[in-house]
Amino acid sequence: MLKQIIDVLEHSAATHYQITKTTTKSHEFFFIRHDLDMNRCKEVTHYQVTVYVASEDKQYLGDASFEVMANSTKEEIKAQIDKGIYSAQFVKNPYFELLDSSEQVEIRSLENPLVVAQDFIHVMQTIEETEEMYINSYEIFVNENDKQIINSKGVNVTYSYIDSMVEAVINAKKNDTEIELYRNYRIGTCNKEMLVEELQQTMRIGVDKCIATNTQPLQDVDVVFTGSDATRLFAYYTSITSAKMKYQQISTLELDQPMTTEEIKGDTITIKGVAYLENSSCNYPYDADGTLIQDKVLIENHIPKNFWGNRRFSQYLQLENASSLYNFVVAGGKQSKKELLQLPYLEVVEFSDFQVDSMTGEFAGEIRLAYYHTKEGIQPFSGGSIAGSMQQVQQEMWLSSEVKQYDHYVIPEVVRMKHVSITGIE
Q1: Nearest 10 degrees: CA dihedral of 349, 352, 358, 361?
Q2: Which of 1, 259, 267, 376 would bridge with 333, disulfide CB 3.0–4.6 Å?
Q3: Helices and strands: H and E segment counts in the chain
Q4: What is the pLDDT of residue 102?
Q5: CA 37 to centroid of chain Cα atoms
């Protein structure tokens, strides 16, 4: 099939082309309680094609992307490619050069997917359960991926990686109330410590949710994040350091210039993009253009140091050695989490939905469970919402020195901030 697609493209009117072939072999296990109900293995291959058409004066390079089905005939492939070329003629992207290379590279993962699946199953069966909190069911998916990227300028790289997913339904009850909590963990190989900690925490959250009272309106109370939702706070910074957002003038950052002129009373932000992160589901040696990924410091002590992005936008900004990035490490702060957790504060551990606008930095979420910590004790709250803006809270935002990994992000384990609006239920 690949040879057929290349043959048709070589004889087409496309100025350039790129093909991404992805073969995924999925190992799937379905459990009810801890009894295996079903397991299966399936393999699928996708062919993603992008055609590029340059204007006569080479001011523009239009593109169109589409998937060619693995069972397509040569005539069907030609019809798709011709349709893509026609569409690309109307796209007026400024001209850029595709990556060129004369080397063929092949990198294979050394991980055994069945061993990875076995690790997940073992972890799930060692979770401590009680009559009040237990695992109702869970599903484990371990994907063995082979990706090949070819373009018309000689790029030909092949690599493999593993990504996994664990879906779990947790039951929790207290007194006469019983609830179910759904969890979806995206990960590479099995991070045993993280998975155990997250599942045990989820069961405790379920029990506390059963006895939580309505969130009260709170004034001038610091908010603490201690869960995976905090990754979205830092994703705001990775997004505004992207070449695409800079080129589109959405990001106003300038290299080597502070992100804000306001005094930083809390901790400054330092973020690094890395090619490899243990247990990440995004350990790709090459980006989608076939560019080798290299570690880069994006922000250092609140000062942007590098932009990152694909071939197109990196060329528009005249960036050298730039690539897309998928794994990010956020440096911890100066204080330990014990030092940061000074009373009083509202610790939000569960949202029904939490969003951070990548353009404005505004964030909001409905509280599913929070703990109000005071000298009188800890009160679980549910309902209401929080809202704020990264532009405002970053002046007084503190990060724990301890860090924790959530798939392709490593972030401070505790994030404490001021100037967050808390809406309770009257």
Answers
A1: -60
A2: 267
A3: 9, 22
A4: 77
A5: 30
